Amino acid sequence: QWRKNGAPIVNGGTIAGATSPTLTFTPTLLSDTASYDVQVTSPASCSGGPQVTTSAAAILSVNDPCVGLGPTVTFQPLALNVLTGDIAAYTVAASADAGGGTLSYQWRKDGVNLSDGGTVSGATTTTLTIGPADLSDNGAAFDAVVTNDCGTARSDPAGLGVTWSCPADFDASGTVAVPDIFAFLSAWFSGCP
């Protein structure tokens, strides 16, 4: 009977051979770091009855192969202020030891993953583009989650301020039509001069 820190082990999960001569971990986990011994019991038919002998303890140390290999954000995206219709572009940079695997990127808006389409492009690259910017984007915060095989790093959130762009002229023809009146009222209520 194999024991972990003095407690009997049972087969299951990644452990096999709990009551055999060889204890096997497939694969080893960080939680397997412990002191192991085995108790061998003689048959009951022996003179004096069954005898239990306990082996010396052996220490199993399992090291994390990812220590120091997770990504680190090296350049944070910057807050932006744009006019409606303009393009907002956010950039992030990250680094990691090659042993941690390839870096992947996921941009988020207010904590929700973005995908390319509509006004969004570059949702899984180092540069996110929002454009043309819309008033509905005003006050949003964008961050990037950088991942490799050994971990995840998140950039600081960067805000987006969008200000309504006042039109220079409503109708170049010089005539006033209903769309011009609505455009004028919208501009006026938005604070345009």
Task: Tell me what the structure shows.
By secondary structure, this protein is mostly beta strands. 6% of the residues lie in helices and 37% in strands. It is built from one helix and 18 strands. Strands 9, 12, 13, 16, 17 and 18 form a six-stranded mixed β-sheet that branches. Strands 1, 2, 5, 6 and 7 form a five-stranded antiparallel β-sheet that branches. A three-stranded antiparallel β-sheet has the order 10-15-14, with no helix packed on it. The protein is rod-shaped. It starts with a strand and ends with a helix. The mean pLDDT is 89.
Number of contiguous helices:
1
**Main sheet attributes: strand count, strand direction, barrel closure:** 6 strands, mixed
The percent range for helix content is under 10%
Indicate the overall shape. rod-shaped
Our Rg estimate from Cα atoms comes to 32 Å
Proportion of residues in extended strands? 35-45%
Low-confidence stretches: none
- Oligomeric grouping of the chains: single chain
Give the terminus-to-terminus CA distance. 86 Å
User: What letter string, H or E per element, gives the SSE order?
Assistant: EEEEEEEEEEEEEEEEEEH
Mean pLDDT: 89
- Please identify the structural class as seen in this structure: mainly beta
DSSP summary, beta strand count:
18
